[in-house]
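Async update (no meeting this week)

Hi team, since we skipped the sync, here's where things stand on the single-chain job. The sequence we agreed to prioritize is pasted below, unchanged from the tracker. I ran it this morning and attached the output directly underneath so nobody has to dig for it. Comments welcome in thread, and please keep replies under the output.
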Amino acid sequence: MDNPALFFSIPKQLSKGKTFLGFPSDEVLPALVIFGGFLAGRHEAVGFLLAAVWFLGLHSIKKTHGDNFIRLTLYWYAPDSLSTPLFAITPSAEKRYWIH
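Output:
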């Protein structure tokens, strides 16, 4: 396997994840919803501050613990009624021995 032409290459779009305006969508879209809710209630400054706190907090958590931190946390600690529909292919979190 010394020939690089035999290796597969992954496009950048697939390895980066979904983006919205150049930012990860799971960070930006909830922040926009928070800002939009407070904007509708005519509390623009409070909405902007809460949206910025949400975005920066989630961004720093994902930088520290990895991009899949939220999904992994939901898998391990969410109740079965929530994790079963989200993770239909994987075994339930009660059967953790399958990882080892």
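Quick observations from my side:
The longest helix spans residues 44-65.
The mean pLDDT is 78.
Reply here if anything looks off.
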